[in-house]
Amino acid sequence: MWAVARIGRRMPWYDQGGRFSGLKLATLLCLLAPAVWVLLQIPLELLEPRPVTLAIHATGLWAIRFLLLTLFVTPCRRIFLWPRVFILRRMLGLSVLAYALGHFCLFIVDKAFDLGVVANELVLRYYLTIGLLALFFLIALGVTSTDLALRRMGIRRWRRLHGLVYPALFLALVHFFMQSKLDVTQPTLLTGLALWLMLYRLVDRRFGRQRALGPVWLLSLTVATTALTALGEALYYHLAIGAPAILVLRANLSLGPAGWRPALIVTLSGLAVVIVATLRRLARHAARPMDGGLPQ
User: Fold this and answer.
1) Where are the membrane-spanning stretches (predicted)?
2) Do residues 141 and 209 both lie within one domain?
3) Which domain holds residue 243?
């Protein structure tokens, strides 16, 4: 019974102290939801006419989304003054690996398990080679994500190895852009969010050592990232199909029939961070006891 209880305490919805965590359980269910939805769509014939191909795209998309979410843990902890969110980082990272492996396995299924064809395409189609390299990086991160690996490697070597998350993200985005061809709405959006995360790390390392970056800094990052996202999308379409860059920039500032453009979504995401961070700071300030006290 003791051994069974000990194994049970290692389930993903328990924290390192062996206590049940509602936060971890809710996160686990959210991470499983996209995979469950993809599996449910197959018998419902919602992924026709090429269900495997659409499932490949869905798992790849969610792998990058969850990778960005994993990288948001550190900013979330500092900006929102929420240290407890750190317990989710390993679970989020492993979910990225799980979806990336599912993405690759579905690619093999799509090729009728013909490993010769798979190997040939991985060599001849550059975007597949790039995606495979990103997968190798994610596997290295996943294998060394345990406490035992951290103790054996030492904190410095472990951190150096886990710096591979940044080239893995870069390669995954390049893979996504090349696979998407002309419609790069989703890759542009994810790249814009990735830019925000990278710029945040650079600025926080330079100016936020003692205290988390304030709302003014966060708003400035949002403005800069929005501009880079809009310019990047305009430049891509101009080079790819010769579209006038000014028309693409105008589309980013309007709610046309095609829906919200990536730059606008990046703006709203950044503003949401600014608002939540401001509210958290105000709540924390209001909760502090006032200095002084009653007069003697």
Assistant:
1) 21-42, 54-74, 86-109, 124-149, 161-178, 184-203, 215-239, 259-279
2) no
3) 182-285
